[in-house]
Design a protein that fits this description.
Helix content is 38%, strand content 19%. By secondary structure, it is an alpha/beta fold. Strands 2-1-3-5-6-4 form a six-stranded mixed β-sheet, with helices on both faces. Strand 5 and strand 6 form a beta hairpin. The protein is globular.
């Protein structure tokens, strides 16, 4: 049980329509595990109140996570940016009014662990928001040529320009390619990817409403490796904990806790 007193530190996540978020479960478990007197809360904020709410929380909290649709909007409200977050153009973790991108760190860590190098691979990324930015920069700097598909082409073109400016080969597409090594779904819609667009090596899906969704079932049937949204969520939370309090828990320990408590299903 978490006891709140006058010395309890406040942490939290700010976003829109985020009642599903497991971030409070993960971070409050981590705080208890290391005996850190803190509480992590969910702040579901409408778009017209975001700036006011974010500024207030950034001033009184010890750390924040930022999620959809605010990962890019938060940039202009911070006093500083980590060099990686500045290049990506999106933040999802804040400490002392400085922004970081732990989505980027999570994707990089999980991909290297799963398949290693991506030299000359073809990476197809669905989306152009904060998650897509983190994924495309991470995969691009690991060696991928990045192709972007997004409903709003203007956003995809802006992301492609930002990637090119940072040394990553990037283009915007209307549909999937004949050959793709890695596919990333950085949208809320798992059905956006047809069977003909499945990659040869790896699929990455940021959604985590159901741990084994239709997209990942199809990947398993085709014998394609995959990284699911729960794994990304846990890894980026671990990276945020390192930034906030300098402590790193094991991914397997947090996964086991979520399964044990019934928040997710075991494979």
């Amino acid at each position: 049980m978490t006891w709140i007193d006058s010395s309890t530190a406040l942490y939290g996540i700010i976003g829109k329509n985020i009642s599903y978020s497991l971030s409070p479960v993960i971070h409050n478990y981590a705080f208890r595990k290391v005996n850190h007197n803190a509480v992590y809360l969910r702040f579901d904020v409408s778009e017209h109140l975001f700036e006011t709410a974010f500024m207030g929380l950034a001033n009184v909290s010890k750390g924040l996570n930022v999620t959809i649709p605010y990962k890019e909007r938060a940039l202009g409200l911070l006093e500083g940016l980590d060099s990686i977050a500045e290049k990506i153009g999106a933040v999802n973790t804040v400490k002392s009014r400085v922004g970081f991108n732990t989505d980027y760190l999570a994707i990089k860590s999980l991909v290297v662990k799963k398949i290693g190098s991506l030299s000359n691979d073809i990476c197809l990324i669905y989306g152009a928001g904060g998650a897509a930015r983190a994924a495309s920069f991470s995969l691009g700097w690991l060696g991928c040529k990045v192709f972007l598909i997004n409903r709003t082409k203007g956003r995809a073109k802006k992301l492609a320009e930002d990637l090119s400016r940072n040394g990553i080969d990037a283009e915007v597409l209307d549909g999937c390619r004949d050959r793709t090594d890695v596919v990333v779904n950085a949208t809320p819609n798992i059905r956006i990817i047809s069977n003909k667009c499945l990659p040869s090596s790896l699929i990455i899906d940021f959604t985590y409403g159901s741990r084994e969704n239709d997209l990942l079932k199809r990947a398993k049937q085709e014998g394609v490796l995959f990284i699911d949204g729960i794994s990304i969520l846990i890894r980026q939370a671990i990276e945020a904990q390192k930034i906030w309090i300098g402590i790193e828990l094991e991914e397997e320990e947090i996964m086991h806790y979520l399964v044990k408590k019934g928040y997710i299903n075991a494979w």
